[in-house]
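STRUCTURE REQUEST FORM
Protein name: PaaI family thioesterase
Source organism: Marinobacter shengliensis
Requested output: structure tokens
Priority: standard
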Amino acid sequence: MALIDTLIGTAGQWVTASDPKATLLQPVAWLKKTGSYATVNRLIGLAIPFAPRNGFSVEEMRPGYVRAKIKLKGNKNHFGSLYAGAYFLVAEIPGGVLSLFDLGPAYTPILKEMTLEFLQPANSDVTVEFSLAPEAVAAILADADATGRAKFTLEGKLKDKEGNHVATSLAHYRVRKKGFKPQD
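Status: completed
Returned output:
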């Protein structure tokens, strides 16, 4: 576990130090950005092999923010639009990604409950964005440090390639601090 924790910490530093808008016109910055996201997605794949097999990827990260995508290819349902399970996958994993990279590897994210409201079929890849304000991150850390656990909720708007709002997710998470021992 120490190796994975070190990799998570290092990948988080790479991502936050990279320029999300870097292009091939800035080759070093572009390589740093693409290498950072490749590392993050590889770590997710190691932890949850189901995710990359189903076309999940983190597209952008910075402190308190993550944008993820799920591909339509390989995830179609019986009438050709995105399968319901794929919506769930793209809406659930980013909460863990935010937890690991914003709180650190000393905190384990756990999904407690999630609901999805389907608004219209998606006939393309789907993206979702989540954010946690710095004050929310600080409150989560303070609560977890004091009690060994903390709760937070993320709401996401899932959008298709054209930007249509196709579903809304509401996810309730709990984080646990590894090795927590209450003070007497």
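Reviewer notes: The two ends are 28 Å apart (CA to CA). Residues 27-47 form the longest helix (21 residues).
Form closed.
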